[in-house]
Backbone:
C-alpha cells in the first residue's frame, strides 16, 4: 500500500527542515512536526460574548475557562490533557514560565504576575481530562471587541496574514446571528493553497440557542430551524461543514449542577404565592420581584447559571415529574442543550478526520516556510508538495466538496445529497458515507459500495455529462473503490 498522507507530510516536513537548517522557519517546522502526533487543536472563535468560553467549558464538562469579565478572557488560552494541573505563560517576547493559578468557585484564575495581558502571546493550561484527550481546545478572545487590539489578537491567531501558519487544525465558529463580519472572518481563515478554501475544517455553532426566542419554551426548536436554514445558505455552505445549534450555558450548568441549585429550583416549582409563572415573565421581574420563595440573590444566581429559559425549563421538568432529583434534571438540561449533537459532529467531522486535518496543517506550514524563505531547495519542495496534494485522494475529495459547495460543479437534481454524503459530510465512516446506519453489516456496506460504484461509473461515462461532472463522478468512484479495498473485519 502507498504511504499514508500523514507519512508523506512527515517526510516533506523533514526535508523542509533540512533545507532550512539554522533558520527560524526550521524551528517553526520542527514544532509542527512534533505536534503532528498530538491531539487535534480546535479553536473556539466568534464575536465578543458569543458564548465561546461557556461552550468550551461545556465540552470539557468542567468550569475551566473564565466567562464574562477579567483579563484572561482577552488572552488566547489552550486547554489540553495533561498528567498534572499546570499553567504555562508564553509571553510575546522572552521566555515562557509556569504561573500560579487558583480555582475557588468555578473558572481557573491565572496570576499573570507582572505581565500585562497584552504582552501575553498565549496561556497553556494542562488539565487531566478525558474530554481533552482527543482534542486540545483553544479559547480565543472575541472578534469585534471594543478594543480593536484584543480582537486583532484572535484574528492574528486564526488567520495570520504574514507567513505564519495558524496553529489551529480546525475551528468551531460561534455565531448568534448571521453577520457579514462573521462571514468575512471565516473567509479569511480559509486558505486558498493546499486545500483550496474548503469547509472541511470548520463547523459553525448557532450559540446561545436558548435566547433565540426570547426565552420562550420553544427556543431550541426555533434554533434548530434557524440552523437548518443557515445550512442551506450558499455563503455559509462555502465556509463551514454544517451549523449546529447549542445552548452552552444549559449544557455546562447541567454538567455541574449542585444539589443546592436543584433544591432552589424545586422550591420555585412549588411556589404558589405568587406562582412561578408570574415571576418568570422576564429576567428582570424574576430577579427583582417580591417573592417569599427565594431571596433575590438566590434568584440572581439561578439566572447566571441557567438564564431565563433554563430556569423555566428546569421548573417545567420538576413539575411534570421528569426531573425528580438533581441527577435527572442535570441529564435533562444537557440533552436539551444540543451538546450531544455537537459532540457527535465534532467526533465525526474533526476527530475521525484527524490525520487529514493534521496533514493539511503540516503541508500548509511547509508551503508558508517555502514562501517566506525561498532557497535552492524551494522549487523541489514545492513540486513535491504539489505532487502530494494533487495525488492524495483525501484532498481531491476536499476539493470536490468545495466545488459542490461553491456551485462550481452542479450535479443533476437528486445527486447532490448523495455526493456530499459520500464525500463524508455526515461523517467519514464507510456506512455513513453510503447512507447506511452505523451498525450496518460488512456485507451491506460492500453491497452499497458496489451499487454506488456502478452508479458513479454510469455518470462518469454518460455522454450527457459535463467534463466537471465526469471528473466528480470519477473521484466518487475512487471513494467507493477505497471502501471496497479496505480490509474486512
Ligand atoms: N442564556 C445564555 N447565556 C449564555 C450562553 N452562553 C454564554 N452565555 C452568557 O453570555 C455571557 C458571555 O459568555 P462567555 O462564555 O464569556 O462568552 P465569550 O464569547 O467567551 O465572551 P468573550 O470571551 O468576552 O468574547 C455570560 O454571561 C454567559 O453566562 C447560553 O448558551 N445561553
Ligand atoms: Mg471568552
Residues:
Amino acid at each position: 500500500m502507498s504511504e499514508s498522507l500523514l507519512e508523506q507530510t512527515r517526510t516533506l516536513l523533514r526535508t523542509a527542515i533540512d533545507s532550512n537548517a539554522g533558520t527560524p522557519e526550521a524551528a517553526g517546522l520542527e514544532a509542527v512536526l512534533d505536534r503532528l502526533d498530538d491531539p487535534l487543536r480546535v479553536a473556539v472563535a466568534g464575536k465578543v460574548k458569543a458564548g465561546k468560553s461557556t461552550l468550551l467549558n461545556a465540552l470539557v464538562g468542567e468550569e475551566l475557562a473564565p466567562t464574562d469579565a477579567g483579563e484572561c478572557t482577552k488572552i488566547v488560552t489552550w486547554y489540553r490533557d495533561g498528567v498534572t494541573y499546570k499553567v504555562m505563560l508564553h509571553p510575546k517576547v522572552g521566555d515562557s514560565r509556569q504561573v500560579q493559578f487558583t480555582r475557588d468557585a468555578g473558572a481557573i484564575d491565572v496570576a499573570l504576575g507582572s505581565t500585562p495581558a497584552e504582552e501575553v502571546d498565549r496561556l497553556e493550561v494542562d488539565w487531566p481530562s478525558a474530554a481533552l484527550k482527543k482534542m486540545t481546545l483553544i479559547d480565543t478572545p472575541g472578534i469585534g471587541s471594543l478594543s480593536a487590539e484584543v480582537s486583532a489578537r484572535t484574528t492574528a491567531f486564526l488567520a495570520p496574514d504574514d507567513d505564519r501558519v495558524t496553529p489551529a487544525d480546525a475551528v468551531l465558529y460561534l455565531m448568534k446571528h448571521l453577520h457579514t463580519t462573521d462571514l468575512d472572518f471565516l473567509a479569511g481563515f480559509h486558505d486558498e493553497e493546499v486545500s483550496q478554501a474548503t469547509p472541511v475544517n470548520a463547523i459553525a455553532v448557532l450559540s446561545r440557542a436558548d435566547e433565540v426566542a426570547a426565552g420562550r419554551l420553544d427556543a431550541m426548536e426555533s434554533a434548530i430551524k434557524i440552523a437548518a436554514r443557515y445550512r442551506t445558505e450558499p455563503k455559509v455552505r462555502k465556509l463551514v461543514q454544517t451549523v449546529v445549534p447549542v445552548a452552552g450555558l444549559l449544557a455546562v450548568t447541567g454538567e455541574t449542577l449542585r444539589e443546592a441549585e436543584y433544591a432552589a429550583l424545586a422550591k420555585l416549582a412549588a411556589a404558589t404565592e405568587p406562582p412561578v409563572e408570574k415571576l418568570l415573565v422576564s429576567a428582570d421581574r424574576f430577579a427583582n420581584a417580591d417573592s417569599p420563595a427565594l431571596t433575590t440573590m438566590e434568584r440572581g444566581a439561578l439566572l447566571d447559571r441557567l438564564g431565563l429559559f433554563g430556569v423555566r425549563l428546569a421548573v417545567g421538568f420538576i413539575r411534570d415529574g421528569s426531573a425528580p432529583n438533581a441527577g435527572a434534571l442535570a441529564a435533562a438540561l444537557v440533552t436539551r442543550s444540543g451538546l450531544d449533537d455537537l459532540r457527535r459532529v465534532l467526533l465525526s467531522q474533526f476527530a475521525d478526520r484527524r490525520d487529514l486535518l493534521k496533514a493539511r496543517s503540516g503541508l500548509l506550514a511547509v508551503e508558508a516556510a517555502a514562501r517566506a524563505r525561498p532557497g535552492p531547495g524551494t522549487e523541489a519542495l514545492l513540486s513535491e508538495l504539489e505532487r502530494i496534494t494533487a495525488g492524495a485522494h483525501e484532498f481531491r475529495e476536499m476539493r470536490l466538496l468545495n466545488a459542490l459547495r461553491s456551485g462550481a460543479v452542479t450535479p443533476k437534481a437528486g445527486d447532490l445529497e448523495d455526493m456530499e454524503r459520500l464525500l463524508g459530510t455526515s461523517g467519514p465512516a464507510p456506512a455513513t458515507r453510503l447512507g447506511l446506519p452505523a451498525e450496518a453489516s460488512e456485507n451491506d456496506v460492500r453491497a452499497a459500495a458496489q451499487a454506488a460504484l456502478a452508479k458513479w461509473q454510469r455518470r462518469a461515462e454518460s455522454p450527457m455529462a459535463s467534463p466537471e461532472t465526469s471528473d466528480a463522478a470519477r473521484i466518487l468512484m475512487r471513494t467507493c473503490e477505497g471502501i471496497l479495498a479496505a480490509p474486512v473485519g
User: Anything to note?
Assistant: The radius of gyration is 25 Å.
